[in-house]
Description:
16 helices, mainly alpha, about 0% strand
Amino acid sequence: MPPAENHRLRELAGLFLKLGLTAFGGPAAHISLMENEVVRRRQWLTHEEFLDLIGMVNLLPGPNSTELAIFIGYRRAGWRGLILGGVCFILPAALLVSAMAWAYVRYGRLPAVEGLFYGIKPVIIAVVVQALWKLGPVALKNRWLALVGAVAVTLSVVGVNPLVVLLGAGLGLAASQIRGGRAAGFFAPAPMARAGLPLLAVAGVVTPFKLGTLFWFFLKVGAVLFGSGYLLLAFLRADLVGHWHWLTENQLLDAVAVGQFTPGPVFTTATFIGYILGGPKAALAATVGIFLPSFLLVAVSGPLIPRLRSSRVMGAFMDGVNVASLALMAVVTWQLGRAALVDVPTGLLALAAGVLLLRYKMNSAWLVLGGGLIGWIISLK
C-alpha cells in the first residue's frame, strides 16, 4: 500500500475513533462536528461537497451521521476508507453501549450520568448553530433557494414527514430546470420506502428468541428506516414489545435512552437490545444487522454523486435537498435547544462554547468534554 494511502487511512481512523468517543447529541450534532473537522480544520472537502453528502444521506434509509462518516471515508481513501470511516465511528459507541448493557443486566439499572449531559447538551447546541452559520450561505445561493428553505422550515414545524420535505424541495427545483416536459434521472427513495415498510409487519403473538431472527430484524430496520432515532422507537416497539414480547416497555425506553445519551450513532440502541436479549453474540448480531445496509447503500451511491452534480436537472434537485436538509437541521436544533438551555448556567455554557468556536476556532471535541466536566461539577453541588 502506498505511504500516502496509509497516511490517509491513519488520519481517517484517528478522526472517527475520536468522534465515536466524543460526538454526543444525535445526528444533527454529529454532522456539525464532522463539518468542523473535515471542512474547516482539515479541508478534506469543500462546503459544497459536504452539503452534497448531507443531501445524499438524507435520501438514504439508515443512520444519517454514520452514512456521512462512511461517505467521507470513501471520498478520502476509497473503498478501504469507506469501511474504516464507518467502523471507527461505530466501534467506540458500540463498545461503550455494550459495557452499559452489561451493567444494566448485572445491576438492573443505568449508570447515573445526568450531570455530564447537563453540561454537554448546551455545548452541542452551540456546535450545531455554528455549523448552520457556516453552511447556510453556501446552500442559500439565491432568493429561490432561500424561499425553498423557508417553506421547508414551515413544513417541518407543522409536522410534515422529513422525507416528503426533502423530496418536495428537490423535485420542485429539478422541475424548474426541465425543458420540453421531459424529466431526467430517477428518484428511488420514495418507492424504496413504500416497498420496504411492509417488511416489518411481522406476524405472530409470541416468538422465541433466536439470534438469526434478531439479525434479520435489525437488517430490515437498517435497510428501510428513514428518519430519526425517535422513529426507530416506533419500529422497535411494534415488533420487539408488541409482536414478539422479547422486551418490556421499560427495557425498550432504557435502550433508547442509552442510544440517545451515549456518543456516536443513536442506532447503537440495537447493540444494547442485543446484549440484554442474548449477551455479546446477540449484541454483535444486532449491531452488524442495523449498520450493514448503510455500508452497502453508500458503496452503491457514492460513485454517483459527481455524476448527479454534473447534470443540470439533478444538480438543481441536490441544491433543493441540501437547503431542505439544513432547514430540518435548524428546526431540530430549535427543538433540542429548548430542552438543553434550561437555566442560566446552560445558557452561559452555550454562549461560551459559541464564542470559542467562532472566534477562537477551538476543537469542538474539547468543548464537549469540557462541558461534560462542568456539568458534572455543577451536579455535585
